[in-house]
Amino acid sequence: MKYCAFLRGVNVKGTNMKMADVCQVFKDAGMKDVSSILASGNIVFSSDKSVEDLKTILEKAMSDHFSYEAFLFVKSQAETEVFWNSIPFEKNDNFHIYSFVGIPGVEKVLMEEFQKAAQAENEKAEIINDLFYWQVPKGNTLDSTFGKVLGKKSLKDQFTSRNVNTFEKVLKKMN
Fold first, then answer.
1. Closest to 53 in 3D by CA, of 23, 83, 31
2. Which DSSP symbol is given to 143?
3. What Rg do the C-alpha atoms of the chain give, in angstroms?
4. How many whole angstroms separate alpha carbon 66 and alpha carbon 17?
5. Measured distance CA(160)–CA(35) in Å, rounded
6. How far apart are CA 4 and CA 31, in angstroms?
7. What residues are paired with 72 via a beta bridge?
8. What pTM, to 2 d.p., does this model score?
9. Which H or E element spans position 87?
10. H/E element holding 150?
11. What is the rounded CA–CA span in Å between residue 30 and residue 49?
12. Are the beta carbons of 77 and 1 closer than 8 angstroms?
């Protein structure tokens, strides 16, 4: 079965790694047909193992190899298609749209945080198919109140975010 592992915290805040090295760690851990998409830690691969086993195996392999506490979220091709096909916002050159890959229920935690945060004009959030989507004006991603919440240490093992265009690139690689 084809999967994508979405790694959290790669190539930000001092956690730097080459995607070729990450792919080699995946291969050494027994994954097949391994390739990366972008430098933000999106690894497409094939395996016969369960998602739960893959998460455990790959987090340990990444942690051991790169000497950091690795967090990643493994999604099947079908699950990845849902991220792309459920986008609730119209594409607009003035906005970034993000979706969040994480543990079950994290979308409710994120919506709670979003509702408490001050929002920029036209900044929006929606939950579709248990997936959290966030639209933010370009240039405001890291400065927005909600954007700052995303870096909370207490949430680091619960989700990672991707610009929705990344899902399109991942799906092209999977097909």
1. 31
2. T
3. 16
4. 8
5. 19
6. 11
7. 7
8. 0.92
9. none
10. none
11. 10
12. yes
